[in-house]
Amino acid sequence: MPRTPGAGGGPVLIVLDGGLATELQARGHDLSGGLWSARLLSEAPGEIAAVHEAFFRAGAGIATTASYQGSLAAFAERGLDGPMLLRRSVELAKRARDRVGGARRVAASIGPYGAALADGSEYRGRYGLSVAALTAFHRPRAGILAEAGPDLLALETVPDVDEAVAMLAAIDGLGIPAWLSYTIDGERTRAGQPLEEAFAVAAGQEQVIAVGVNCCDPRHVPRALEVAREVSGKPVIAYPNSGERWDPVRGAWTGPSRFRPESLCGADFAGGCCRVRPADIAALAAACRG
């Protein structure tokens, strides 16, 4: 169950971590290139473990692995052992969990096909591939991650209903619970489908323990969670970005952060994505304890 009784008898929301890549960049790492944070699985694995630990110590109950953009093809193109590095992503999060202790869990990140293209396609969807082709892409990586023994699978930043269907097919039979999280724009997926259609694919899927949104504007979370709960009948999850925007001309983030714990009220699982740091997660965890 996503909620358990607190000391006062009330529900306790499960806190997720924040932006892994954001924190790695803050520690001085260059994540440019097609592998993004997965590049450090080879070059600086200890730094990934350190960031996981920082989020755990801030109050996160679940760490999401650095496998989001690590496709097998991308690793192979660089002469890297993809299966080994995917397993390492889970091992690093487990290492951080063991160092901090307590009842914490590890979610293995499975990003969308567009993430592997490293061209922003995950914010558009509609790649021109069939559901069968997308399933074939996701299944090997999902199997490798599952064999590494995470507690959960995170099907995240999904822009398209077709890809959600494919990802659910790819994890079928692996025996590990998963959440399904879309990236959205207002009340539609990035590919333009209504949220009602998007969340309906999880209804009746026993392996899916939560549905919701991530890597989106915090302002779009409340309505999305209403629809997710109503349509899917599942617990709901939200981990939005800070609300800042990337200016490609200036090469900088602009605008204020709009990440507020109260904007995540109503979620069963809540955390942050891009630009959400350990201090933000600590504030969220404190709000949950309150």
Descriptive overview:
With 290 residues, this protein is α/β, with parallel strands linked by helices. The protein has a single domain, classed as Alpha-Beta Barrel (TIM Barrel), CATH 3.20.20.330. Helix content is 39%, strand content 17%. It contains 11 helices and 14 strands. Strands 3-14-11-10-7-6-5-4 form an 8-stranded parallel β-sheet. Strands 1-2 form a two-stranded antiparallel sheet. α3 runs parallel beside α5, α5 packs across α7 and α7 packs across α8 (161-171). The longest helix is centred in the first third of the chain and has 19 residues, at 82-100. The protein is globular and about 45 Å long. The chain starts with a strand and ends with a helix. Mean pLDDT is 92; it is low at 1-11.
Number of strands: 14
> What is the general shape?
globular
CATH superfamily: Homocysteine-binding-like domain
Name of the CATH first level: Alpha Beta
The percentage helix is: 25-40%
What structural category do the secondary elements indicate? alpha/beta
CATH fold annotation: TIM Barrel
Give the helices and strands as they follow along the chain: EEEHHHEHHEHHEHEEEHEHEEEEH
Q: End-to-end distance, in Å?
A: 20 Å
pLDDT average, as an integer?
92
CATH hierarchy: architecture: Alpha-Beta Barrel
The major pleated sheet works out as:
8 strands, parallel
- Low-pLDDT regions: 1-11
Q: What is the count of distinct domains?
A: 1
Oligomer: single chain
Q: Give the strand order, joined by hyphens, for the main sheet.
A: 3-14-11-10-7-6-5-4
